């Protein structure tokens, strides 16, 4: 259960779903409850398939950002994807940092 393809897919799904939520909010579209429920299922799947303790031992991988992604995803769900402009900015800023760090980790 280290940084394998299944783990990578779970992490990538969280990342792309957050981006999709932000894009919808930027357009003024409300995220439907059914989508929030799907996101909750994704977070559960992440918890079942990704062992953060093992990721900490993966050389060259900054697991703190993966934990941050997990935390941020959970916070967005807690708010039913109803974020104010400042929160959208903060999540987008985190995602930019996340992308930079992950790109560096994968190049190692």
Task: Describe the sheet with the most strands.
Answer: none
Q: Roughly how many Å is the radius of gyration?
A: 14 Å
Q: Report helical residue fraction.
A: over 70%
Distance N to C terminus: 20 Å
How many E-type strands? 0
By secondary-structure content and strand pairing, the structural class works out as mainly alpha
Provide the succession of SSEs.
Answer: HHHHH
pLDDT < 50 runs, ≥5 residues: none
Number of domains: 1
| β-sheet strand percentage | under 5%
Write down the overall geometry.
globular
Average per-residue pLDDT, rounded, comes to 87
SS summary, helix count? 5
Summarize the structure.
This protein has 5 helices and no strands. With 108 residues, it is mainly alpha-helical.
């Amino acid at each position: 259960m280290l940084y394998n393809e299944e783990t990578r897919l779970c992490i990538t799904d969280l990342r792309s779903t957050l981006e999709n939520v932000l894009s919808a909010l930027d357009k003024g579209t409300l995220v439907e409850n059914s989508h929030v429920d799907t996101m909750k299922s994704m977070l559960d799947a992440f918890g079942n398939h990704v062992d953060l303790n093992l990721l900490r031992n993966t050389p060259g991988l900054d697991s703190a950002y993966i934990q941050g992604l997990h935390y941020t995803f959970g916070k967005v769900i807690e708010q039913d994807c109803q974020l104010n402009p400042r929160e959208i900015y903060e999540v987008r800023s985190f995602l930019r940092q996340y992308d930079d760090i992950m790109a560096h980790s994968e190049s190692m």
